[in-house]
Amino acid sequence: MVFQACEGNEEDMLMPEIFYIRKTDPAKSDSLVAHAFMGDNIAIIGKNLGNVDEVWFNDQRAALNPNLVTPASILVTVPEIIPSTVTNFLYLVNMNKKDTLKYTFGVDVPAPLVDRMVCEYVADGETAVIQGNYFVDDPASPLTVLFPGNIPGTIVNFTINEIHVTVPSGVGPGQIQVKSLYGSTRSRFFFRDDRNIILNFDNLTAAGGWRSGVIGSSNPAGISGNYVRFSGKLPAKAGGAWIEDGVSFNLWPIANGRTDVPFYTGDIKDGLIKFEVNVVAPWETAALQMIFTAYSVTGRNNYIADLPTYPRGIWNPWKETGTFMTDGWITVSIPLSEFTYTYNGALTSDKLTDDMLRGLTFIVGNGGVNGKECTPNICIDNIRVVPK
Fold first, then answer.
1. Which of 134, 188, 229, 298 supports an S-S bond with 252, CB 3.0-4.6 Å?
2. pLDDT single digits (tens) 249-289
3. How far apart are CA 120 and CA 131, in angstroms?
4. For the whole model, what pTM was predicted?
5. Are the CB atoms for 280 and 379 separated by under 8 Å?
6. Which positions ≥6 away from 295 have C-beta within 8 Å?
């Protein structure tokens, strides 16, 4: 420890001392640390810490909660911004802004965090957008994106949280890998995910149901062949009349010639429904409702209005701002654990169960949130259920 002393009333402003630093996790509280990853919570143990006003890691100031500062300890989170200047010191600054304690402590940068893609279906030669964190380039170890087959993409530009990369030729479905100076991470999601496809509106359609959906392939251009289009005038009132034929489909497995096999066999709490969507005209009312149904459900649609109740997922991205459009195709991901709503958008105690994962209905209607009368144009493709 190195102390930088200055003039002042030492009785009023005692210099801080650090005895040791440990993790705040109770399971690791007996482990002393000399470095930590960005975003880690640590406990600084010492004395005369009550007058500390600022905590710095290298050249990055940490957010300090006064309620977590006592004379004997400071609980603080290591900043998640990569330092511009690495000193490998922790600095405690007293309230008088003159007395500073410098303590040897290192900050570790994690391997890249590969969270999601704006769109998981992107054609060869087009630009894909990967989002996450800790995307760091270094001359000694350049930032690299590897598509399935270990085929490198060409990075167009990037920030710490986002990479724009050109998709190389000849890649297929699979995980994406991002490498940096600090490590390598393979995505949990699949690029061009082809697992458990329920509907692609090419060879897998909702034919046989009362409504198989309006199929489109142009204006906008499809992302991988045909898609279903939901379009027509919707009333402002969520429960008002709606154009059922233009904004819904019913996949009834018996009528569609499918066998009694679930779309997904994993644990429901670990599953996601995913699809690509392109909204090319403003969507300003009602919700997209997603309803899984049992194999026996066919020739009737009373389940749509909860007779009996089939807990459903609800997606209404316009709700926050009052309107919603996309800039091209995006991937939507909704946990199956969030299939907890009724037709009117209320929470239900009914649970989504494995035997319901046989049929599927999408409708744009109700959802419990009023908006503005509008004529959206909502295009959807590649509906699938996959693990998180």
1. 298
2. 999 999 999 999 999 999 999 999 999 999 999 999 999 99
3. 11
4. 0.86
5. yes
6. 253, 254, 260, 355, 358, 359
